[in-house]
Amino acid sequence: MRGAETAVTGELAIEGDAARCFDFIAMGIDASFELVLVDGLRLAWLPAGEGLPARLELRFLDESRGGIGCGRTVRWEPLDRLADLRVVDDASSVEAFANGDELCLSTRYYPERYGLSAHAPSADLRFWPLG
Question: Are strands 103-108 and 41-46 parallel, antiparallel or unpaired?
Answer without folding.
Answer: unpaired
